[in-house]
């Protein structure tokens, strides 16, 4: 498969200065005196953000405008604290502290303020942010997912120097396995998981991705393919931000490069609203991506999950089959399930009769047999031998490359 690499190195500069950046005491980043943070702002990431400020990139200007014009933002503590970490403008740091003292039950933002603005905090302020009594009412009013709540607890523990981070005794393996069954459809939950992984790694904890390595290797492509055509074209701000964070966790994966190619596109750039600070934090314009249209538009996992779309065009037929055989589809023609359908270089072949003809599988092509019956045994010829295979929980079977000709329902 040939990939056409899209040059996505966006170095957009402007002569205009805005907000705090207009201050006469503006100075470039001094790498020799960089503070050491525990959450999100690795030295490399912080230097990139400070370069964006120096060069007045569009992400910096949008973030700067957000800080200057949105005093009622629900993410105000995060935004002001990030602004302070990048600029060292004391006014924004003190404003972040004051916001945090009034919203100490927002555990994530309190943790970020404790970490990024720690030199501005008094002992009493640190105690109020770290030990706020929120009561049941605050918990009931929160609609955060379990991953957001776990991330918040861990971040506060890290920011306050606790040795016990409050992780489950099982090391999250069960929770990650459940997430792999479709939790990544929710970009807010995925983003929270990315922040959790990032925070644990920065602080020398074990990389929880090791507990489910195959899932995390395929996750960037699976997240992209899980979006219906309309969502891919107009995703809202949460999905591109989750994508950028996921790329930031492991930019070297080939699947990450496809996801970066989508997330870094100009049309995905978040330029207003609460996503602006996250765009600034995670949107790395110096990281090249591969055009996502070059990703073969299907993915199959042996537990019975399939994502497939006919093309990357907005009018494509899109299909998802979940473990157990639940089917979701969008924009597919009537009767498509009763005949062979082409999804990129994969043919999906319904076994509606006793036997079905499968093509020669070569040069990266694939065929998936669909019997719609879990555990269905099928037979095929492999040279002079007859082999028996069994469909997964969704009635799917990826046809082995050595097989061509007829595949038949087994009566054994």
Fold and architecture overview:
- The protein has 412 residues and is of the alpha+beta class.
- It has 15 helices and 14 strands.
- The protein has helices at 43-55, 58-69, 76-87, 90-102, 107-116, 123-130, 135-141, 146-159, 173-179, 187-202, 213-225, 229-233, 238-249, 254-263, 276-282; strands at residues 5-6, 289-290, 298-301, 305-309, 318-321, 327-330, 341-343, 346-350, 355-358, 366-370, 377-382, 385-390, 396-398, 405-409.
- A hairpin with a 3-residue loop joins strand 3 and strand 4.
- The two termini are 39 Å apart.
Please give the order of strands in the largest beta sheet: 3-4-5-6
Q: In total, how many beta strands? A: 14
Run of helices and strands: EHHHHHHHHHHHHHHHEEEEEEEEEEEEE
Gross morphology: elongated
The number of helical runs is 15
Radius of gyration: 25 Å
**Helix vs. strand class:** alpha+beta
The oligomerization state is single chain
Report low-confidence residues grouped into runs of 5 or more.
1-31, 137-143
Helix content: 25-40%
Report how far the terminal alpha carbons are from each other.
39 Å
Whole-number average pLDDT?
A: 87
The proportion of strand residues reads: 5-15%
State the major sheet.
4 strands, antiparallel
Write a brief structural summary:
The protein has helices spanning 43-55, 58-69, 76-87, 90-102, 107-116, 123-130, 135-141, 146-159, 173-179, 187-202, 213-225, 229-233, 238-249, 254-263, 276-282; strands spanning 5-6, 289-290, 298-301, 305-309, 318-321, 327-330, 341-343, 346-350, 355-358, 366-370, 377-382, 385-390, 396-398, 405-409.
């Amino acid at each position: 498969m040939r990939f056409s690499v899209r040059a996505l190195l966006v170095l957009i500069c402007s002569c205009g200065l805005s907000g705090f950046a207009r201050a006469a005491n503006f100075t470039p980043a001094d790498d020799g005196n960089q503070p050491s943070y525990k959450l999100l702002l690795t030295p490399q990431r912080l230097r990139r953000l400070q370069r964006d400020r120096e060069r007045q990139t569009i992400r910096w200007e949008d973030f700067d405008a957000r800080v200057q014009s949105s005093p009622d933002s629900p993410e105000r503590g995060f935004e002001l604290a990030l602004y302070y970490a990048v600029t060292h403008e004391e006014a924004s740091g003190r404003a972040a502290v004051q916001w945090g003292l009034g919203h100490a039950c927002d555990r994530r933002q309190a943790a970020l303020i404790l970490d990024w603005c720690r030199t501005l905090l008094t002992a009493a302020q640190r105690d109020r942010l770290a030990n706020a009594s929120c009561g049941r009412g605050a918990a009931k009013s929160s609609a955060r997912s379990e991953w957001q709540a776990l991330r918040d607890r861990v971040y506060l523990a890290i920011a306050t120097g606790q040795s016990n981070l409050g992780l489950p005794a099982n090391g999250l393996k069960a929770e990650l396995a459940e997430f792999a069954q479709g939790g990544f459809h929710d970009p807010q939950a995925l983003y929270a998981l990315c922040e959790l992984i990032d925070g644990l790694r920065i602080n020398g904890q074990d990389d929880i991705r090791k507990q489910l390595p195959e899932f995390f290797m395929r996750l960037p492509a699976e997240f992209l393919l899980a979006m219906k055509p309309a969502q891919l074209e107009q995703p809202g701000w949460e999905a591109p931000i989750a994508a950028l964070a996921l790329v930031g966790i492991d930019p070297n994966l080939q699947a990450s490069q496809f996801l970066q190619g989508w997330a870094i596109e100009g049309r995905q750039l978040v330029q207003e609203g609460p996503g602006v600070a996250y765009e600034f934090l995670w949107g790395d314009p110096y990281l090249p991506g591969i055009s996502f249209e070059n990703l073969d538009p299907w993915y199959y996992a042996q537990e019975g999950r399939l994502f497939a779309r006919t093309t990357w065009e907005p009018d494509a037929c899109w299909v998802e089959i979940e473990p157990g055989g639940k089917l979701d589809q969008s924009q597919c023609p009537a009767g498509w399930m009763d005949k062979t359908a082409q999804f990129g270089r994969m043919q999906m072949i319904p076994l509606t009769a006793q036997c079905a003809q499968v093509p020669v599988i070569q040069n990266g092509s694939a065929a998936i047999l669909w019997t719609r019956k879990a555990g269905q045994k099928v037979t095929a010829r492999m040279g002079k031998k007859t082999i028996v295979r069994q469909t997964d929980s969704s009635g799917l079977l990826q046809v082995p490359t050595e097989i061509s000709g007829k595949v038949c329902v087994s009566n054994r």
